[in-house]
Amino acid sequence: MGAGHAHPLYVHGHSRVHRMAPEAKVAAAVTFVAAVAITPRQALWAFGVDAACLAGAIIASGIGPRFVLRRLAVVLPFVAFALFIPFVASGDRVDVFGLSLSREGLWGAWNVLVKATLGASASILLAGTTEIPRLLTGASRLRVPATLTAIASFMVRYLEVIAGELGRMRTAMAARGYAPRWLWQARPIATGAGALFVRSYERGERVHAAMLARGYTGAMPDLGERRASIGEWAVAAALPTIAWLAAVTALTGVLT
Amino acid sequence: MTATVDVRGLRFTYPDGHEALLGLDLRVEAGQRVALLGPNGAGKTTLALHLNGINMPDQGVVRIGELTVAEQVLPEIRRRVGLVFQDAHDQLFMPSVAEDVAFGPANLGLRDAELDARVDEALAAVGASELRPRTPHHLSGGERRRVALATVLAMRPDVLVLDEPTSGLDPAGRRELVDVLSTLPMTQLVITHDLPFALELCARSVIIDGGRVVADAATAHLLTDDQLLGRHRLELPYGFDPRIVGPSPAR
Amino acid sequence: MHAPDGFLNLGTAVTTGAVSATAVGGALRHMRSTLSDKQVPLAGLAGAFIFAAQMVNFPVAAGTTGHLLGGALAAILLGPATGAVVVTVVVVVQALAFADGGLTALGYNVLNMAVVTAFGGYGVFVLLRRVLPDNASGVIAATGLAAGLSVALSAMAFSIEWLFGATAPVPFDTVFGAMVGVHVLIGVGEGVISALAVGAVLAARPDLVHGARDLSRAQTADRARIGMRGFAIGAVLVTLVVAAVVSQFAASAPDGLERVAQDQGLVAQAQDHALAGGPFADYATDGVRNQQASLAIAGGAGVAVTLLVGLGIGFAVRDRRSGRFTGARAPTASS
Question: Within the 173-212 window of chain C, which residues sit less than 8 Å (CB to CB) from chain A?
């Protein structure tokens, strides 16, 4: 439910993590998070291994643990939801500080919290060390359809321009004393949004004209960037491999 | 490297019924710089879009060198005629300056080292080599305008068409733009409301109003005809007198 | 709405991922087949608009604020296929570049926030357009209701996914009630803001509203014919129908699914472990007993949303007509 954020997470740097080819990083982040997601919730040691690996990578990247902690606030609404689970869940009850809580619910809350935190930390590391255009390059090399990445690229390029127009519109409203408190006073905001859509669309038409003027024929040219080497893939695979080993060990341990 | 522009009897009506051009004639010799003046809505930008084949004439012809603008020769027309749009944000749509400058030549089929060399050449021509890795939306207005010019120069055009290149620039940005444009050898058509800029850069000016050319003469001559300027909603800035400014070193 | 990693089990993540990929893939093909090379920059700019629109805080009550989700709005402005693609791009970029929503949760996040809101919202919009008058007022009213309901649909989709992929023993009707209840409130704002935004686009560039392309110039200019009262009555009727459908669903779906599961002998196995295969997690059906209660909750919620959406639009329309809520008061009389 978090509101959108105009400013990407990228933290400028030259660490090994920063320099890694984007497709390797995106693939590593996704497989790492998938391993966390399948890890059984009782396997505390496995989450410890995952957290230690991730912490190592975060330190190596130089983006700083404080930055990661601050950005974790984005998952807060779901933390609130998780804290709610032990009260409404069914099953055996246990008394904790005089509160009657569901034992299963406590495990459920722990499960959501630990996986959401590890997953979000991995995402923050990815976004913090990879500029958006490179993320999109990585995604398209991982077979995400070119149309999607091209649209995303235009979106990212014009996000600040449009958010800027929006900001100026709001400033102009506030400058003339507009301070709404109720939904039925929201008309200027909504019509402003409508006007902004028209402006965005018309800008899209002008951008298209500018592209045609430079010989665009319907396909974005491939301006080739260095691809991931085998060595890089191997380095990138380290974290997810450890996480998967931990997850599979925990799973087989639990299931037998 | 440079080509004539020849427009004859050009008429164009927008799909919504607005008649923008009503039989416009204009000839610009190879290597000449011409200012296109006129009030808002006169048809100047519509004319610019015809020179590059973005709009196609309802009637009349547009010729660039010996080539008539038509559907089947559009790739060549778009290489020959470089269009610099009024809002540089519309022109700079790629994630980085380098990629944006490379967009045009890449569409012409250039790759790798050749493409790189072309990008360097274009950025150097506008004095923006150090902006290569930057993101377009973090550039200043003047930098953005020069990079927009570079994206077009990278296609090595014969004709350059600029739509209000000085709008929104600070005085130093405007000065840098004049310096760059005055060194470029190709034919230039400059749409502008900035009359001192026209005087400084272009020996010849054309006034367009109501979809037609209504005056065509030496810039210094046009700018001293107060009645003519007044009829077409043009005004010199307060205190500016073209009679005592004299010819510009830029021309 | 941006769910984090591990919120639903991996099977559900993979299944919703496959459903989303299929839906978005189909939408992409449709988009390419119907429109020119112009689509890519236009969709990109529309994506930037939706992204920015999600940052707009609007007042809800007593100074509290909400923000748009934009799925139905995008579908009505751009068409369902392009709308779904655009919102998908927004959701994916939010996960990749802003760590907003989990990477392994993309399957259900895209499904709930882009696919269900765009296609579901547009479906409701098309149905409503059939009963509402063919003019600007009809389009605006249909937008408001469709956008409001798209949020409720999204919450329902999430509840159903919980039925299959629950990671904690919270029963389906608790989740359903909580999700729909919370999103009812969000839906009111979504409906009002989307309706007014589409109204503004209709006034400026009617050709840009995909969902109103069938209207003539005269019809798009005609926006006074449906009055406050007519609108309110229409809203109540639609609300009753919707509430009935939602209640039926709430009352019968988990039971129906549970019976299927029992017939297959899967429930017994599913008791042991959340990871054991079953058509849905045993957790979610644990406490489904009180059909009457869930029916009442869901039905009541449905009525409340739609009425509030209708009232909200009514107030906003009145605002324009009489200037009563604009806060501009003549500085004469009282002094």
Answer: 174, 188-189, 192-201, 203-205, 208
